[in-house]
Amino acid sequence: VETCPTNKMMQRLALFFTAPYQLELRQEPLPPLPDDGLLVQTVVSAISPGTEMLLYRGQMPADLMADATIAALGEGGYPQKYGYAALGRVIEVGKSVDKAWRDRLVFAFQPHQSHFVAKPDEVLPLPDRMQPETAVFLPNMETAVSFVMDAQPGIGEQVAVLGQGIVGLLTTSLLAQLPLASLLTLDGYPLRRDWSQKLGATASLDPATPDLADQIQAALPHASHHPGLDLAFELSGNPAALDMAIGLMGFNGRILIGSWYGRKRANLDLGGHFHRHQIQLISSQVSHLAPRWQGRWSKARRLAVAWEMLQTVQPQQLITQRFPLEQAQQAYELIDLRPETAVQVVFIYDR
Q1: Contact, 59 vs 87, CB < 8 A?
Q2: Are the beta carbons of 93 and 109 closer than 8 angstroms?
Q3: pLDDT by residue (tens digit) across 331-340?
């Protein structure tokens, strides 16, 4: 990558999704550094295996490909740069920017690319002594915080998390800090179930187990008083898991749906059990605050909690593979074809 202090004619390496299952690395010119801008050299960026794999597989609806709340993303369609978890170092500042920004580590909602230009209000400085590989989990930790806020778990409740991908594991790590009666998790991959229990799950079960319902019932300490779950988080990305969750709920149970299914349809049994048990389905999306929180909470306050939870959980331990950006095809193929071997995959950049 060519660099120069004034940013003139500077080239960056950027990853493009060009079609389903097709990626391309391109050298492209960086935009000029404005007087009020920062030039950032990326240190590490994290793959979001939920939304990014929908894009990689061609399963993301075109109208959802571009997140209107993240200005760095494109307008949707292919080719498309994507990614929203980049951690980098400020290597140059515009004329009107405080020189104290130089050499600072910052987080940004930016695609996978070697450099980017942003304004100071578009980046987040890292807390003191936080490592880049910890901070790169910020978007997923904020999502987990948002899920827990929206679900409002109560003391002594019987709770389950379906799906122990990275967001599921982070959600489990937060729930494990609460005085729940039990915290069960479900995932098909032994590696993720092992991590789930390390992060505090009471038990982690394989959803393909033939007697799963009996195992869950046996693991509920309040089953004699309340046979069934009080609360479930559907974070697997698999529509069939939502139908499973409905069948596991006790009276007036809540199911928070954090999965984005893309073009996959959910076939649900909304018959007698669903209605007689008055089961509640809760949608949740991190790009905004639910109305109940407005007034006391802001996105800045929620983000502050996410930073604190990163310090507490130290999620960099969940990184299973590190790839240079030049090996992006291998990284996405691994997540697509061998997901049982991966928890969090990151790109590392020359620095």
Answers
A1: no
A2: no
A3: 999 999 999 9
